[in-house]
Each structure stands twice: as C-alpha cells, then as structure tokens.
Amino acid sequence: MIKLLRQNKTALISGAVILVVIILSTLAPLLSKYSETSQDLAHRLMAPGNGHLFGTDELGRDVLTRILYGTRVSLFIALLPTALAVVVGTFAGVCSALFNGVIDFAIMRFADVMLSIPGMLLSMVVLYTFGGSLSSVVIALILIEWGGIARVVRTRALEIYQKEYIEAAIITGAGQGRIIFFHIIPNLIPTLIVLFTLNIPSSILAESTLSFLGIGIQPPQVSLGLMTGYSRQYLFQMPWLSLAPSGMVMLLVLSFNFLGDAIRDILDPKRRQL
Amino acid sequence: MKELPKRLLGIIIVMILVIALIFVMLRIIPGDPASVLLNEHVSQANIDRLTKSMGLDKSLPEQFFGYLGGVLRGDLGQSYYMQQPVSSLILQAFPYTIRLTLLSIVFAWTMGIVSGIFSAMYNDHFPDYLFRGTALLGISVPVFMVALFLQYLFYYRLSLLPLVYDGSIVSMILPAIALGWNSAGSVARLMRSSLMDELDANYMDTARAKGLIYKKAVIFHAFKNAILPVITMMALQLAEMLSGAVITESVFSIPGLGKLALTALQTRDMPLLQGTVLFTAFLIAVGGILADFINTLLNPRLRLG
User: Fold this and answer.
1) Residues 80-119 of A with CB under 8 A from B
2) ipTM metric
3) Which residues on chain A are in Cβ contact (under 8 Å) with B244?
4) What is the pLDDT of residue A200?
C-alpha cells in the first residue's frame, strides 16, 4: 500500500502538505517569538509586514502565530473525534452484523435516528447541553459520524461473514471471539482506513463552522473558525484577517480530501476508476 | 409505490425516536432550566412559578408524553424567549429557508451536472482535470469562507448585489450560491463517476454502432441512467443544506430556520431548539420519500420490482 501511495502523485503532494502543516504547527512555540494570546494593544489591526507576516488582529495578537495554534486544534479535531467515531461505529456495526435480530434492529434504528437529524443541528443540541467547548465539539462529532460508519461496517462485516474462510474457521472449531478478532476485524481494516480518512474533512469543517458561529470552541482558546468569526467585522478594510485562517481550513480540508480519495482508490480497486 | 405505507410507518417510528432522543439530550443538563433563564437575584418563589408554568415540575415521562401528544396536535410548546408558540415561529421562518434551499439546489445542480458531464466526456484530458479540481475545491471550502468571499467581491468590490437579505429575490442570490457551493462539488463528482459507469455500458456501443453521434448518445441514453444516483443523493443533500443554512442565514441575516435554531441556542430557549430540530428532521424524512418517488417515476426497473 505504501508503494502504491508513493506512485500516486496527488497522494504524495497532499501527504507532504499535511506533513509540513503538522510539523509547523507542532513547532509553533519555537518558530514564533509571539505567544498566541499575548495582547499588544499599541499594535492592533496592523497590515501584514513589520515583523508580523499576516499582520495583527483586533487585540494586537500576531495572526500567523494564532493560525499555527489554531491549526493544532483543527488537526486534533481531524484525528481524535474521527478515530473515536470509527471505533464506536465499528463496534456497533460488527455487533449489528453478528447478532441479527433485536440487537441488529435496535442499533440500526438508533443509527437511522442519528442520521435523520442534520449534523449541524444535532451538534447544536449537544452544545446546548454541555456548553461551547472543545470537548463538547468532540462529543458532537462522534455522535454525528458514528451512525454512517456503523452502517458501512455492518454491510462489509456481513459480506465477510459469508466468505469461505469464515466457514473454514467455524469448522475448525474457532469460537465467536476468535472469528471476530482474527478474521472479521483484520479484513475490515481497509474499509476502516477509508472511512477514517473520508470523515476527517467533515470533522475539520464542522468544528470551524461551529466556532465561526461562536457556539463551538470559546476564547481564549484559539480556533481557525473562531478567528474568522471575529475578523468578520473587518472584512472590507482588512480582508486578510478573515482570509488567512479560513484559507488554512481550506488547505487542510483540501489536502485531506485528496489524500482520502487516493487511499480509497488504492484500497478499493473496484472503484479505482473514480 | 406499494411500499409507501411501510415507509410512512418507518418514518413515524424514527420521528418518535428523534423526539425521545432530543428530549433526553436536552434534559441531561446540570441544574434546572428555570433558574438558568432567570438571573441569580430572583427569589425561589419566582423560580418555582416559572418551573411550574414551563411544566418542568412534572416527571420526565409525563413531560415526554405530554410533548408527544402536543406534537400530534401540531403544538410544539411555547418559546421561553420570544413568548410565542414554537409552531408559529417555525412556520414564519420556514418559507425563507425553503426559498433559499430551492435556489441553491438549482445552482448546485446546474453547476454540478454540467461540469460532471464535461468531466466524464473528456476523461483524463484537460477539461476533466479542471472540473475535477474545481469540484474538489468546491467540497473543501468552508461555507462561511464562500459567504464572506462573495460579500467582499460582489458587495464591496463590485457593488453589484446587496450585502445582506433585504426581502428581495436579488439579495437571495449570494446566500444561495454560498449554500450551494459544497453541494455543486459533490453533485459534479457523483455525476462524473455515475456517467462514466454508463459510458462503458453495452448499450452505448449499440448506440454508436447504429450511427448515433457520441454527444447525442451521451445526452439521450447515458445521461438518463446516470442521473438516478444523483437524485437519490438529493435527500442526503437536503440534510447538508439545512445544516449549511444555519451559517448562511446567520451571515446574510435571513430569518429562516437555521437562524431560528441559532437564536434558540444562544438564548437557551429549549422548546424552540427542540421544535426546530424536530421540524428539520421531519423535512429530511419527507425529502427522502420524495427522492424515492421521483426515482421510481424515472426508473422503470424500480417500478416493476
């Protein structure tokens, strides 16, 4: 798979962009002489230049530094809630496939219910209950994403269950646990990788959108969406203030979309034509 | 549509479960809602009175079945903040959202279908790369970025269109583009892949063999089949658009459902948030049936089965 990825030009480029962004945002404290929260009211709303590559915001904070710190939040959101949603979705999907009957029905109806509420409004319900914060956004994203994952995993697990090697395993006396952990889950892994990468862009977009509206991550924490939301009032005089953080969101989502497409093409040869 | 009664029953079950889920999720909040609404200087007696008038002194199952009964009668409760029935607030907001959504669907479909067809016909040539790149950019841009960019360009730079919604249809153009942008990207991608599958089909060789021009064959034969999955996606897109409407309506000040839900969250207006979420879930369920219905009309294979 690594070899195929290396042959794929878009995967290579998008992977490199993601790697550079990860390194830059991890090294943010070393790279920047400014802190993401220190205010400098004498130098507020400065145009790019003069030691501030992207200028300063309404409280005199260095915009570039804040973008690097905001990117850390976006990357965290890209990886953790998505990974947890894959874990929950896999568990639910495999259970649903193995125990047909009441458990299958209950899990799938629950997934239907989750999927019949628009993601944005479902997360607003979560934010009403838990208040706006990073952890509430994580909970909201898991709730939005697990249902879709569970459905795909269930279908795939049922397909695997029909395979001859499962039959062979049952004949040789393998127990339920052995079949799940040694036969079904390993064969699910390509599907899970695809589901994981395909869900990353929507996680990043959802977080930045909620924070843009002021109901997601709250200050003093930094988030790219939150920065754009605050810079909106200076849109006409200082467009770069909104453009820079939202452009970073776009770059991240675009790279992950390219990478996700490439990985799906490699792991799913039937759809390689796509 | 022999399955219609079965589908309707399924939707009713899912809707009841949606109500139960939202009901529980909104009520696991720490502290009692009445004291959150009032400030700390209010006496306990007043808090008790509000709790009672909101029906929060009853047990949870009692509240739930009371609410469920209300929903059946079209009564979604009273908004705490705006002091009006939730159902009438929703009905006031609904026309704005439906207008916005329809306009952006028109935009997304025109853009998406046309560029998807070009992409598939010029597979692996320059137009294909161009349209594929644009489509991927389309699904990667945050809705708020498109909205701000449009405001900057068309209002500030070109002074062509109004900044926010002012009641005219012209001021609905920018919000519709902002909301439809992501969907245009996904329609284009689906249209391309679905059309490419059809272009490989045997009937295309037949059409070419009997002397039909390639472009005509694409439009009259392949397109008709390729559009079906795109229509199926419509229901899914409706959910996406109602999500996006929250941002678009707030950036362009449109008094629609998304704005209503956001106001409900910001003013901690539980009945209003509950009602809006329920109503959008209902809209999506109806959209799903509609998409199935259109598909059965267009696809004879489904009608027989």
Assistant:
1) 109-110, 112-114, 116-119
2) 0.83
3) 120
4) 93
